Amino acid sequence: MILAAGRGERMRPVTDRVPKPLIKAAGRPLIEHLIERLVRAGFTDLVVNVSHLADLVEQGLGDGSQYGVRIAYSREEQALETGGGIAYALPLLGQGPFVVVNSDIYCDFDFARLVSAATTLDASRARAHLVLVDNPPHHPGGDFSLSQGGLAGDGPGRLTFSGIGVYLPELFAAVRRGSKCQLAALLRPAMARGAVTGEHHRGLWMDIGTPQRLSELERVLASKPGG
Within the chain, how many helices (H) and strands (E) appear? Predict the structure, then answer.
C-alpha cells in the first residue's frame, strides 16, 4: 500500500493544484520513483489511498500497467490519517501481511527485504515490522527505540520511523472503518506487548516534506544518474 491521501500542507501553494505524490523530482513524480523501486523488489499488486485531488492521482497513475503493476485505489472522502487510511483499505489488502510506504519519501532501501519480514510476522506474535533511519535534522528526537530487533516507544538511541512498514490486519481490528486514527496510537500499545519488530536502514532516505527538501532531492538525483 502506498499512502497518497495527504494534502501536503508544507508544500503549499504547489499542492493546492498538484497532489503531493505527483510533484516531480528529476522530471518524474515522487510516487513514480517509489513504484519503480517496489517493482524492482518484486511487488506488483499495489493499493494507493487517495483523498486530496484524488482524481488527479488516479488519472496520473491509471491502472498501473505503464509501470508493470496493478493498482487498486482506496478513496477516502476526507483523509483518515495513516492508521485510519490503512484500516479503510483492509478489504483491498487481503488477510495476510502487507507492506505500507509513504509516497513522499525517497530512499535506496531494498524493499525485497520486507518479504522475509512479512513471513516472520505471519509466524510470530508480532503485528508490525518497521524500518527506522538515522534522525534527520528536522526530526532530531526520533520516534522509537530499537533494541535487539524489538521496538519501544521510549528508550535510548531513538531513531526515526521511515514511513516503511509491514503489518498484519489484526493491528487495525479495533479501528472503525471510515474513522480517523493515527498509526502511533496503534503501534505504541503493540510495542508495550512486545509485538513490534524493526530494523535500521543506514542508507539514503529523505522525507520530501518541504520545498527545501525537494530541492535537496533534485541535487541528489542530479549527482546519481538514473536516480
Answer: 6, 13
> Per-residue DSSP letters for 153-185?
SS-SSEEEEEEEEEE-GGGGTTSPTTS---HHH
User: What's the CA gap between 119 and 67, in Å, rounded?
Assistant: 26
Element (H, E) at 106: strand 105-107
CATH entry 3.90.550.10 includes domain 2-223: yes
- What's 64's DSSP letter? S
Distance CA 122, CA 142 (A): 28
**pLDDT value at residue 226:** 52
CA distances from 61 to 56, 176, 179 (A): 9, 29, 26
Per-residue pLDDT band for 15 (boundaries 50, 70, 90) equals confident
pTM check: above 0.90: yes
Residue ranges covered by each domain of the chain: 2-223
